[in-house]
Design a protein that fits this description.
It is a single chain. The chain is α+β, with helices and mostly antiparallel strands. The chain has two domains: 1-28; 32-149, Rieske [2Fe-2S] iron-sulphur domain (Rieske Iron-sulfur Protein). The chain is 15% helix and 25% strand. The structure holds FE2/S2 (inorganic) cluster. Residues 80, 82-83, 85, 98, 100-101, 103, 115-116 line the site of FE2/S2 (inorganic) cluster.
Length: 153
């Protein structure tokens, strides 16, 4: 084969991009391969893989998992309580924002600005053998965030 320098660089860049895309898809946060156990819970992975103070999106399961600085877990539906649009993480407020009608939620999913009528729904969490499971079949409507909504390992 007769490669010139430009062709070589082009193929090298494409090759590296492919390798990176593979690893991002395989290892990315929010890797959403369904893993449902016998009780209908979805396994989101090892407790230790969630760092304190971080929020993890699980798009396929329509939720965010937040690990508090004290280690407690809170899972929130990503569906706005106004008309159900998917809310986005808002890096400026550490909360969530709805792109449809501009509702804003604080870091615990409480409403900061309407039209959302109530906080983001809480998704029950169960921890078994060091693994974190969410019960997607039983979301809970809330009026406010309370510390007893947290689950600890
Ligand atoms: S659906 Fe979110 S503000 Fe309307």
């Amino acid at each position: 084969m007769n490669f010139n320098r430009r062709q070589f660089i082009k193929r090298l860049v494409l090759g590296l991009a492919s390798v990176e895309a593979f690893f991002l898809l395989r290892n990315g946060v929010g890797n959403n391969a369904p893993d449902t156990n016998a009780e209908g819970m979805v396994n989101l992975g090892k407790v230790d893989s969630f760092q304190k103070g971080n929020v993890y999106p699980f798009v396929a399961h329509k939720l965010y998992v937040k690990r508090m600085k004290d280690g407690g877990f809170l899972a929130l539906s990503n569906q706005c309580t106004h008309l159900g649009c998917v809310v986005n993480l808002n890096p400026q407020s550490n909360g969530f924002s709805c792109p449809c009608h501009a509702s804003h939620f604080n870091e615990n999913g409480e409403v900061l600005s309407a039209p959302a009528p109530r906080p983001l729904d809480q998704i029950p969490i169960h921890i078994k053998n060091g693994e974190l499971f969410v019960d997607l079949a039983h979301p809970k409507k809330r009026n406010a965030y309370e510390k007893n909504q947290l689950t600890y390992a």
